[in-house]
């Protein structure tokens, strides 16, 4: 059985800045292998205060889907924690190249040798850590180098469709997902093409096409919170005749 605990459900600047929802990442455990995906601000604190407590020193790896702060802020403190400040060389970090080199690099250089390994994420590749297997999606349409993650838990595919502008070309990457966790930052489309996030209309199109067994909406911006995510999820559920739920901080899925 896989356990997925969505520690935080905040997306975009105001919800993160005001902590209207937590911006912590997602904890994933499968057959003794433990990961954190997209450790945004507050991940370490949430891990230490959630019940049951999640021990940073027992993590085997970290995954960054992209370098944006609400996805990567706590990566350094988690590396420090899981390696006991470098005393134990362990843990694997998976991240797009942009997180490690160039102007958007987010992983502190002095921490990198503490890790057992750093693996670069590229589009549509397979990766393994311990008992967890996953693949990346095609590259997302976002202002940073971004890949979605599709976990394979003994044949059960669980996709994290993270930040992106909508494109029908993305759907192929997630077509075989039975469970789809979607970052839906916006209620309505943004007039500026520089805001590269999904809105509710995009999510409806994606879900109508993929028809997963279950969809979970998360990573909410202000317009989503105002529109009440659980009501949006209920409406999509009725309209598409699918199970769609809105995540809340601490939502745990047993798969
Ligand atoms: Zn982003």
Automatic annotation (TrEMBL):
Transmembrane regions listed in the UniProt entry: none
CDD domains xref list: metallo-hydrolase-like_MBL-fold
Pfam families associated with the record: Lactamase_B_2
Cited InterPro entries: Metallo-B-lactamas, RibonucZ/Hydroxyglut_hydro
Domain Metallo-beta-lactamase: 33-220
Protein name: Metallo-beta-lactamase family protein
Organism: Thermodesulfatator indicus (strain DSM 15286 / JCM 11887 / CIR29812)
């Amino acid at each position: 059985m896989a356990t997925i605990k969505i520690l935080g459900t905040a997306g975009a600047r105001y919800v993160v800045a005001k902590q209207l929802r937590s911006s912590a990442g997602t904890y994933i455990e499968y057959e003794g292998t433990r990961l954190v995906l997209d450790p945004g601000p507050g991940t370490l604190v949430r891990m230490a205060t959630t019940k049951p407590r999640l021990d940073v020193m027992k993590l085997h790896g970290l995954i960054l889907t992209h370098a944006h702060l609400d996805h990567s802020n706590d990566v350094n403190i988690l590396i420090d924690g899981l390696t006991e400040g470098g005393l134990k060389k362990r843990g694997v970090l998976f991240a797009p190249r942009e997180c490690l080199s160039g102007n958007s690099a987010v992983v502190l250089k002095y921490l990198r040798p503490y890790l057992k390994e750093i693996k670069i994420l590229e589009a549509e590749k397979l990766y393994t850590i311990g008992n967890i297997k996953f693949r990346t999606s095609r590259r997302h349409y976002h202002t940073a180098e971004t890949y979605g993650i599709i976990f394979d838990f003994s044949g059960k595919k669980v996709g994290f469709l993270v930040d992106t502008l909508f494109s029908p070309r993305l759907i192929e990457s997630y077509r075989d997902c039975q469970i789809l966790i979607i970052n839906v930052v916006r209620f309505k489309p943004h007039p500026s093409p520089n805001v590269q996030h999904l809105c509710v209309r995009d999510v409806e199109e994606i879900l109508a096409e993929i028809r997963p067994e279950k969809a979970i909406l998360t990573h909410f911006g202000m317009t989503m919170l105002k529109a009440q995510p659980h009501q949006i999820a209920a409406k999509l559920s009725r309209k598409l005749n699918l199970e769609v739920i809105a995540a809340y901080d601490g939502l745990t899925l047993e798969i």
